[in-house]
Design a protein that fits this description.
Blueprint lengths: L1 E4 L5 H7 L18 E6 L6 H6 L2 H5 L2 E3 L9 E4 L5 E2 L15 E8 L3 E8 L4 E9 L9 H29 L6 E9 L1 H8 L20 E3 H5 L11 E4 L9 H9 L6 E5 L3 E7 L4 E7 L19 E8 L2 E6 L7 E2 L1 H13 L18 E4 L2 E3 L1 H25 L8 E5 L1 H5 L2 H6 L11 E5 L1 H9 L5 H11 E4 L5 H9 L4
Parallel strand pairs: 6-9, 9-11, 12-20, 14-22, 15-17, 20-21
Antiparallel strand pairs: 1-4, 2-3, 2-4, 5-8, 6-7, 7-8, 10-11, 12-13, 13-14, 15-16, 18-19
Helix pairs in contact: 4-5, 7-12, 7-13, 9-14
């Protein structure tokens, strides 16, 4: 897609003003390198940030950071491809019986939004779509996005409405009896979806305007993005527990059947960890950053078409799997975890995360244009240390050890493709729990699907909320100590 940009404007700001949104994970501060545009005609000076983040070849090809590009005269630019991907599940090829009743399940993640067409009569999801959350144009992590919402709440709300509407259009609802919809999301995403005041989520003491739990019509939820071709069905927002333990986590826990005590880890931009037994549920959230969802990595992207999702050793050669169709466009979180594990196993990086001399400058090249750099390794170390340390604080608080845990559940889109041995090699999960670990993928979406047909689901949700206690790690000295200790690989 090519556009003409007038003179005297910042390109990123101009695009936003016209309703065109491209990723800017750092919020437009010029450090993430994701808001690339390509100059096709005219002149754009190379900025200091361009030189720091882009190779000489990229600069020669006309690539610039939109957040730092200011035009002095009209220019024509090319925008990056925006991707809507179809992620197959094991039931996606199931025959759709038009005599059945159907529902829609939606999971709103910070990085990715997923929607499923659910056969309520048959009690199964028959079609699932995912797309990148367009709010990434205002920041990859929750805090950056919430800060942007202070001035751009309506724009952020409209972006998420558009994303949901686009997914619903692609689910092919025509001629089907669609009766209801369920949404699961973290607390921040609920606020942004509903256009609510987010200030209480940005600093202590944290407070919320909503934890979910509302029921409304689809036309009310989507506003101007509601398509008259959609059925105006009832939409339920699955309730959460606290500011940082949202409806996505409650939905996920309610969807699993695991031996207790169990650890539940939803690994994404925020790492939410839950320790549950028959008497109580302890929860905590750690700011892991967006690395495990592909954000803030040099070649990072969400788990959508073109993402390298798995990397493995095939007789000394690097092999990899791609979501959807080639070519490889970047690394999603599971691919990055595999790349890190590959480097550990082959001595390419040491236990501190430093590359050997051969790879120090080039990084670990997976394929043309896709690599793991030293900065990427550091981002992954910070993320995995936050997750692991959160687990350990919960266990200490409950007076338990790894030997007491019967099941470790890895959830989130990251867990959909995650190789558990890679997770153990890098220290993301403890080696002692590898044999008890299960990567269940998007449990939030699965819970939303189940809520449409499982009569006991709401009862389980209520029980989870009543039993749950949230720990705050902000001022925890134990967490800080564990975080430093867990940085090494």
């Amino acid at each position: 897609m090519q556009l003409v940009i007038p003179g005297g404007v910042n390109i990123l700001q101009f695009l936003r003003s016209k309703g065109v949104f491209i990723p800017a994970y750092c919020g437009g501060s010029g450090v993430c390198g994701k808001c690339l545009v390509r100059l096709m005609a005219g002149t754009l000076p190379v900025t200091q940030e361009d030189r720091f983040l882009l190779s000489s070849d990229k600069l020669a090809q006309g690539f610039r950071l939109a957040c730092k590009a200011v035009t002095s005269s009209p220019v024509r630019i090319e925008l990056p491809e925006q991707t809507l991907s179809y992620q197959k599940s094991e039931n996606d090829n199931a025959d759709i019986d038009p005599s059945h009743s159907f529902g829609i399940a939606v999971d709103i993640g910070t990085t990715t939004i997923a929607a499923s067409l659910v056969d309520i009569t048959g009690k199964t999801a028959v079609r699932t779509l995912t797309t990148a959350n367009s709010q990434a144009a205002y920041g990859a992590d929750v805090i950056t996005r919430l800060s942007a919402a202070q001035e751009s709440s309506a724009q952020l709300q409209e972006l998420i409405r558009r994303d949901i509407s686009a997914l619903l259009s692609r689910l092919c609802l025509k001629d089907l009896l669609v009766t209801k919809m369920a949404v699961a999301a973290n607390t921040a995403m609920y606020h942004l979806l509903l256009g609510l005041d987010c200030r209480g989520l940005t600093k202590a003491p944290f407070y919320t305007v909503t934890l979910g739990g509302q029921i409304m019509l689809l036309s009310t939820l989507l506003g101007d993005s509601f398509d008259q071709a959609f059925p105006d069905i009832s939409v339920s927002l699955i309730p959460g527990i606290s500011a940082f333990i949202g409806g996505d986590i409650v939905s996920g826990i309610a969807s699993v059947n695991a031996d207790e005590p169990f650890l539940f880890a939803d690994i994404g931009t925020n790492g939410e960890i839950v320790l549950a037994d028959k008497d109580s549920i302890l929860c905590a959230s750690a700011a892991a950053g967006p690395a495990f969802e592909g954000g803030e990595l040099s070649c990072g992207m969400g788990g959508i078409d073109g993402a390298v999702s798995r990397i493995y050793d095939d007789g000394g050669a690097i092999k990899y799997d791609i979501i959807g169709s080639p070519p490889a466009k970047g690394l999603c979180g599971s691919g990055a975890a595999d790349a890190l594990a590959f480097c550990v196993r082959h001595g390419i990086i040491d236990r501190t995360g430093a590359f050997d001399e051969i790879h120090r400058e080039s990084g670990f090249v997976i394929t043309d244009g896709v690599m793991l750099t030293q900065d990427d390794v550091r981002q992954l170390q910070l993320a995995k240390s936050a997750i692991r340390s959160c687990m350990e604080v919960l266990l200490k608080t409950a007076g338990k050890g790894y030997e007491d845990i019967k099941t470790l559940i890895i959830a989130g889109g990251f867990g959909y493709f995650l190789d558990l041995e890679s997770a153990a090699v890098t220290g993301l999960i403890p080696g002692e729990l590898l044999k008890y670990a299960k990567a269940l993928g998007n449990t939030s979406l699965r819970g939303a699907q189940m809520s449409l047909y499982d009569e006991g689901f709401d009862k389980r949700v209520s029980s989870i909320i009543k039993r749950a206690k949230t720990l705050t790690l902000t001022d925890s000295e134990e967490f800080k100590k564990d975080f430093i200790n867990n940085l090494n690989i």
